[in-house]
């Protein structure tokens, strides 16, 4: 197991990068703790797999260093780094049995046969393939082959890290949930450093201790699932995490008030004057439908019943805005305004969250 440090790391697939857009990975400076489970989350093309391949040794970065503990491994190959990697599509030996596929990494390192047999049996149980241990891999479904590949990646206990590059793409939905649960149990039991690449927020949030959200080659936030939900540090995090994602409205900020097209929205803090593209963000869970004169006047477009709750789709000054309503809640005919919880409103300048000078709650406490 190892602490992983990204030191001034950046990468371009071009020989002479000169513009910001030439870099597949912009500068990264992060320390990932030994023994934690991380998820690299982001849309296709954001740099997730590039970063994973640099960590694994399949790719040498254009600039910077990567350290495992105190050791600089930037130019070491995968074997020297002592990591295991599971790829998006199955990588198995078709002529071998399932048992031999799972045992191969251990036999290749001269492990004791009794240990190999016990470990293979345990991993086969974890991936639900005990009944097929004697079968050849050839002829098995893609789903089954990927489970073999996954099992071979986790069969070793002595690795510095286990890397997963969207490993559940070809797995059926029910098995995805089971395997995620098993991977989490494996991590809790053995404490491997794990890095899991995915574009699926559910996979990321249920698997990881901390989620690394990437956008346009940058890490825009590294935090726990709770931190990503409560305080997205970048508008992309607010948009990408949650269903539906965070509401974003253009605004002007004055003290503890946001002004959206002439309507005042209270904030839980005093902000200094801001320049640039200014927006406020609030999750649909903290938006209420009200009648009267409070809140923003909206045009309700539709209400979607998704079982656990209802999603109200509305529009304000040409901007879409969503609210989560309780399941079964009747919508009054005269309700046409949305009210925000001031404690849950974030302020963004040029897509990055800015903090208030001090909160309203703090001001009130000091006044007392």
From TrEMBL:
The cross-references to InterPro entries, in alphabetical order and at most eight, read: AAA+_ATPase (IPR003593), ABC_transporter-like_ATP-bd (IPR003439), ABC_transpr_FbpC (IPR015853), ABC_transpr_MalK/UgpC-like (IPR047641), Mo/tungstate-bd_C_term_dom (IPR008995), NA-bd_OB-fold (IPR012340), OB_MalK-like (IPR040582), P-loop_NTPase (IPR027417)
**Membrane topology note:** Peripheral membrane protein
What compartments host this protein? Cell inner membrane
Protein name, entry field: ABC transporter ATP-binding protein
Q: Name one Pfam family in it.
A: ABC_tran
Q: Which domain of life is it from?
A: Bacteria
Q: Which GO terms describe its cellular component?
A: ATP-binding cassette (ABC) transporter complex, substrate-binding subunit-containing
Q: Where is the signal peptide?
A: none
Instruction: Mention one GO molecular function.
Output: ATP binding
Domain ABC transporter: residue ranges: 4-241
Entry keyword set:
ATP-binding, Cell membrane, Membrane, Nucleotide-binding, Transport
């Amino acid at each position: 197991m190892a602490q992983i440090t990204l030191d001034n790391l950046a990468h371009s697939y071009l020989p002479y990068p000169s513009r910001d857009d030439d870099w597949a990975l912009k500068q990264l400076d992060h320390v990932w703790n030994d023994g934690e489970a991380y998820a690299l989350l982001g849309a296709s093309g954001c740099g997730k797999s590039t970063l994973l391949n640099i960590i694994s040794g399949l790719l040498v970065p254009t600039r910077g260093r990567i350290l495992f503990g105190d050791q600089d491994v930037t130019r070491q190959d995968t074997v020297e780094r002592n990591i295991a990697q599971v790829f998006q599509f199955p990588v198995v030996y078709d002529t071998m049995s399932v048992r031999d596929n799972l045992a191969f990494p251990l036999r290749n390192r001269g492990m004791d046969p009794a240990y190999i047999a016990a470990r293979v049996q345990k991993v086969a149980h974890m991936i639900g393939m005990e009944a097929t241990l004697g079968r050849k891999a050839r002829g098995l479904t893609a789903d089954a082959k990927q489970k073999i590949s996954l099992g071979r990646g986790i069969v070793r206990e002595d690795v510095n890290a286990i890397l997963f590059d969207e490993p559940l793409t070809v797995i059926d939905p029910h098995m995805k949930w089971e395997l995620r649960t098993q991977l989490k149990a494996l991590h809790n039991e053995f404490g491997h450093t794990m890095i899991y690449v995915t574009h699926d927020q559910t996979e990321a949030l249920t698997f990881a201790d901390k989620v690394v959200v990437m956008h346009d080659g940058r890490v825009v936030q590294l935090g726990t699932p709770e931190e990503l939900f409560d305080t997205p540090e970048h508008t992309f995090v607010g948009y990408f995490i949650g269903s539906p994602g965070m509401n974003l409205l253009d605004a002007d900020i004055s003290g503890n008030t946001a002004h959206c097209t002439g309507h005042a929205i209270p904030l839980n803090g005093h902000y200094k004057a801001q320049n640039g593209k200014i927006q406020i963000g609030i999750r649909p869970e903290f938006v209420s439908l009200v009648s009267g004169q409070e809140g923003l006047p909206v045009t309700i477009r539709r209400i979607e019943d998704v079982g656990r709750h209802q999603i109200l789709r509305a529009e304000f000054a040409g901007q879409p805005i969503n609210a989560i309503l309780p399941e079964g809640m009747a919508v009054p005919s005269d309700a046409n305004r949305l009210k925000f919880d001031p404690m849950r409103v974030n302020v963004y300048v040029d897509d990055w969250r800015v903090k208030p000078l001090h909160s309203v709650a703090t001001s009130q406490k000091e006044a007392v």
